[in-house]
Design brief:
6-stranded mixed beta sheet, 6 helices, globular
Length: 284
């Protein structure tokens, strides 16, 4: 069908309006995707049970949630097992750093990791005292949606009567934070092997808000319904996996347990449940 000149001008004008409207709906290049920051912490349970199947369950849920930051504990690598954090980061499209008290040249290394949906600009790790406990803390300075963020990862001493050791390790963690934080806001994720209100975490709570407890303020967030230990796999009901956000730098918008259901085959993603918190920068 042949169009006369006037019809062509109308169609061209409509096309220009469509393009302009489409452009108006798009986020400007370099603008933040969101004012919120989603952070996950998860103890992987290293390679117990069917790790390839558990890995698929973890990847599926993390892909759906798409958090900006993922902190992992009990990350393992050995001659027959590629580094678990590296594999997850590759599958999810994140940058990562792995931290271990084991020597870099060892085939078998065990530790923690930080994954970010952004760019890692700096990183550092330290061993925590006592050195024979083989615990460490790691740090990355990340650039996420055009904004800098400090992320710290740790996994503290595990024995119920080890409060004094955990307190010593918290002191080491805070020293790392003081040496690396600069003027950039900070968050911490990890398996602390104790309740968030435990006395040995008091020095941490002075400077950081425990996000899950803050989101569930007014109820006891240490009851079985909030446990991060998987009771279906024989653990006691206690919440020991926490995310701490720097006081004054963030407000807590939401927090919930994730990876806390078995699949149709009865397989669980881990012997811990994950924690996902949504933070909003105080400046937003």
């Amino acid at each position: 069908m042949r169009l006369h000149a006037g019809a062509k001008r109308v169609i061209a004008a409509l096309g220009l309006v469509t393009v302009l409207a489409s452009g108006a709906c798009q986020r400007p290049r370099g603008a933040p995707a969101s004012s919120s920051l989603d952070v996950v912490t998860l103890n992987l349970w290293h390679d117990k049970q069917d790790w390839p199947h558990r890995q698929d369950l973890i990847v599926a849920e993390l892909e759906a949630l798409s958090p900006e930051v993922i902190v992992l504990q009990e990350v393992l690598q050995h001659a027959a097992l590629p580094n678990q954090a590296e594999v997850l980061a590759s599958r999810l499209g994140y940058q990562y750093r792995f931290f271990s008290a084991d020597a870099p040249d060892q085939a078998r290394r065990y530790g923690n990791a930080i994954l970010v949906r952004g760019a890692i600009e700096q990183s550092r790790e330290i061993r925590l005292a006592p050195l024979d406990d083989y615990r460490n803390a790691g740090w990355v300075r990340a650039r996420i949606d055009g904004r800098s963020l400090n992320v710290y990862a740790t996994h503290l001493h595990y024995k119920p009567d080890g409060a004094a050791i955990r307190a010593q390790q918290v002191t080491g963690l805070l020293a790392l934070i003081d040496e690396t934080r600069g003027d950039v806001p900070s968050i911490i994720g990890g398996d602390f092997n104790t309740r968030s209100d435990a006395p040995e975490l008091a020095s941490l709570r002075e400077r950081f808000v425990e996000a899950y407890g803050q989101a569930h303020e007014g109820q006891d967030a240490n009851t079985p319904m909030h446990s991060t230990l998987n009771m279906h796999l024989g653990h006691p009901p206690i919440r020991i996996d926490h995310i701490f956000a720097q006081r004054g730098a963030f407000r807590v918008a939401d927090a919930r347990l994730i990876l806390n259901r078995a699949d149709a085959t009865g397989a669980w993603p881990s012997d811990h449940y994950g924690v996902r918190v949504r933070l909003v920068r105080a400046s937003d």
